[in-house]
Design goal:
It is a single chain. With 334 residues, this protein is of the alpha/beta class. The chain has a domain of 219 residues: Rossmann fold (3-Layer(aba) Sandwich), CATH 3.40.50.720. Helix content is 42%, strand content 17%. It contains eleven helices and 13 strands. The strands form four sheets. Strands 3-2-1-4-5-6-11 form a seven-stranded parallel beta sheet, with helices on both faces. A two-stranded parallel ribbon has the order 7-10. The structure holds nicotinamide-adenine-dinucleotide and uridine-5'-diphosphate-4-deoxy-4-fluoro-alpha-D-galactose. The site of uridine-5'-diphosphate-4-deoxy-4-fluoro-alpha-D-galactose has 21 residues, from helix 7 and strand 8.
Amino acid sequence: MNILVTGGTGYIGSHTCVELIKAGHDVVIVDNLCNSKIEVLDYIKEITGYTCKFYECDILDREGLQKVFTENKIDSVIHFAGLKAVGESCAKPLMYYRNNISGTVILCEVMAEFGVKSIVFSSSATVYGIPKEVPLKEDFPLSTTNPYGSTKLMIEGILKDLYNADNEWDITVLRYFNPIGAHESGLIGEDPNGIPNNLMPYITKVASKQLPCLGVFGNDYPTPDGTGIRDYIHVVDLADGHVKAIDHMDGYQVFNLGTGVGYSVLDLVNAFIKVNGVDVPYEIKDRRPGDIAENFADATRAKEVLGWTAKYGVEDMCRSSWNFTVKALERKSK
Ligand code: NAD
Ligand code: UFG
């Protein structure tokens, strides 16, 4: 199939392009490069031997998208393009609503105009809000605690309404838990600018001595070691989930993509230190506002319907994250 990947040069998008190409699909990428680099295209080519067709285009740019659909016969869209920083979304909510929600509406309008009614959407476990119980199932109540999460929840609602209005659409919503890790080549991975918000990029910055010390946000949660528990999932497994989703488009569907296993902050830090033989100094800090104690997925539905389960364990995630960091630093120093 010919798949349009919005946000395809980003962290999850680039890994998904690799897995799509490996599965025999053709890939067209649309990205405005606001949070990714053009070199990613070369790396995808180096890994797969395949050259993705690329459009530097904002999904808010209707004419730009129309050109993409005019020049390519697209069968299905995987829609990653979006802004994702929780803190920034609190400071600049309108930017998030415009980019994520208006962008998705324009994309769907252009898709409908060209008769392409098949879309996989990147949602997030953040739509479960403050969970009353874990593991989280797809039919649990939804709510959000920040504008970024609200954009995801609103887009889910928009896509559901779209399907209800026109059953010709096939819409799959994937709720990701915490993607970490990188492709084994060390060519693509997560490399945020500045001080990272998320745990694994922070750990790799400390391990590579670009930052002095990791702050562990709270050790008084009701968890075995007091630190927050999350369902970390290898980005290559997540990418594979998209390939499976594309193979099983069937009306409106929602799936959790997680491993079903929760690790605490200290579990992850200790696994990273052990697997990679590097030091990660840390100190306990106050809780981060808005954080929840624990979340992990019930991923049974994805297993039963998509035939998907996560294959990689936390050690693979830690090893590949560090491999990518080391190789990225080598590339930068050349
Ligand atoms: P990313 O920032 O690496 O990738 C997003 C890509 O979209 C970037 O390449 C960026 O340049 C592009 N983009 C943003 N706005 C655009 C626009 N208006 N037009 C065109 N391109 C645009 O992020 P990621 O981690 O790969 O996340 C991909 C998707 O998955 C996002 O929608 C994100 O909200 C969602 N998600 C991510 C996580 C996570 O922890 N990484 C968790 C749950 C959901
Ligand atoms: N943490 C630290 N120190 C840090 C960063 C994080 O102790 O420097 C802790 C957090 O308190 C939390 C855990 O590490 O307990 C994970 O935090 P992340 O920021 O890596 O991830 P979150 O679970 O907070 O959120 C991420 C994405 C959201 C997404 C959510 C669910 O940032 O956008 O996963 O998919 F919605």
